[in-house]
Amino acid sequence: MTAFNRRDFLKAAAAAGALSLTACATPGSGKPIARVVVIGGGYGGATAAKYLRLWAPEIEVVLVERNPAFVSCPLSNLVLGGSRTIEDLTTGYDALVKRYGVKLVRDTATAVDPDKRQVRLANGDPLAYDRLIVSPGIEFLYDDIPGLAGADAQARVLHAWKAGPQTVALRKQLEAIRDGGVYALHIPKAPYRCPPGPYERAAQVAFYFKQHKPRSKVLILDSNPDITSKKGLFLKAWNERYPGIVEYRPNSELIDVDARTLTAKLVSGDVKADVLNVVPPQRAGDIAKQAGLITANNRWAGIDWLTTESLAVKGIHVLGDATLSAPGMPKSGFMANNHAKIAADAVIALLTGRAVNPSPIIANTCYSFVSDTDVVHVASVHKYDAEKKTLVAVQGAGGLSSAANELEGKYAHAWAKNIWADALL
Amino acid sequence: MTRTNRTLTAALLGAAVLGAGAAHGAEDPQVRVWAAACATCHGTHGASAGGVPTIAGEPGDKLYKLLQEFKDGSRPATVMHQHAKGYTDEELQRLAAYFSRQRP
């Protein structure tokens, strides 16, 4: 308490006693006006939980998360390059609980009953909600890759597309290969989580090889017909910084994988590698599927971008990578953090009877490291278009870095620090 | 609710509930949620956790001038020019005023 001393505070509290419940409910004093359950403590869910409490302390917020801590996907390619550890990217949930009064439930949400307004958990009792926010991230479509059906195959051919143990395991595989070995990275067809991520990963592995295994190769097997993000900037970085190391092969559609021989079976023929890293195609996380929120291609959850409310099930909001992206909107942690703010504001409006903001404006910036220090970005601003009834990228705004540079390397780390704090601290 | 009461409530929420930040209770929710998009880089309420400038608590006219200079390209920037161009002058004015009222 800075501006107020204790006596002032008590006087003010007494004077405020006659005010409405909405205005003066505080954590621990007074009954919450509603309960919001948030499933998933990633960039979307953690931000939504914090901002709900920040903006509406009269609402009870329960966050359901199965992992003990948050591990950032952004910057996780630096673990492969060797300039960061997974611990550097890890933040606990304790500040959300202690500072903001979020109730944390360490469990897995297994089902939603929208009629009873209940979330069922793997271990605990069902949780009742007034509004539900689902921010489940992605699940991999292994069905499309029969050779990766079993746990053994998946342990040998990693995705490392959810930061954590897989990231560390992939780094170990890279450390174990001989100088002169081949690292092959398979990229699924867009849309997938983090469009520039695979190309950044190629640069990070090349950065490691250049220092420690200079005769080794990075082979990018892209299902897409071309580089899907920051094309010119990545090509320049690969050619100038890692000549003879990085090779890019477009239209490399995957038919199957032989995990035993580390072979990618492509439409264009077989490619054998020493480390094979396959990023499988993706859909919205399991709970979105289970709750009937998937509306597009059996993969993504369509939402109303004014409120983030599901187009399929009333009372449930969906955030982040699991959503059917609005035009020009990437699946990124930055966007999930911004979706969460629209959601928090709209949920509060809907629960308190205030009008929903008719014109949301959010933004995105994806920083990619092409070495341990140098970075390129892509940015965009997204505004609600009332006629098109969706968020659209503002023409004339946004854009790319002119070239990879160290100053943006500093800003990229600063951004990470700020978004982690914004979501979790 | 009288003016004094509203200020008081705001102060209560600011001081008691959050212990940081400013008078959230009294904020116009529209500019508050717009400003939250800036917080992804500049920190919650514009109070930076480090590395990106803190914009909370700076004079509103100074912030507005900086934002205009980013928008018209006269101020060198790595990324702010690309963000500022996404907003109308009126939106930038309201954002500048909002951040000027936040505690750094």
Automatic annotation (TrEMBL), chain A:
Domain Flavocytochrome c sulphide dehydrogenase flavin-binding residue range list: 358-424
Residue ranges occupied by any FAD/NAD(P)-binding domain in the UniProt entry: 35-149
One Pfam family per UniProt: Pyr_redox_2
Residues of the Sulfide dehydrogenase [flavocytochrome c] flavoprotein chain central domain: 167-280
Aminoacyl-tRNA synthetase among keywords: no
Molecular functions per Gene Ontology: flavin adenine dinucleotide binding; oxidoreductase activity
UniProtKB keywords: FAD, Flavoprotein, Signal
Flavoprotein is among the record's keywords: yes
Signal peptide range: 1-25
PANTHER family: FAD-DEPENDENT PYRIDINE NUCLEOTIDE-DISULPHIDE OXIDOREDUCTASE, PTHR43755
Protein name: Twin-arginine translocation signal domain-containing protein
Gene source species: Pseudothauera rhizosphaerae
UniProtKB/TrEMBL annotation, chain B:
Gene3D superfamilies: Cytochrome c-like domain (1.10.760.10)
Keyword Transport: yes
Organism: Pseudothauera rhizosphaerae
Keywords: Electron transport, Heme, Iron, Metal-binding, Signal, Transport
Pfam families per the UniProt record, alphabetical: Cytochrome_CBB3
Gene Ontology MF annotations: electron transfer activity; heme binding; metal ion binding
Protein name as it appears in the record: C-type cytochrome
Residues spanning the signal sequence: 1-25
Organism superkingdom: Bacteria
Domain Cytochrome c: 9-103
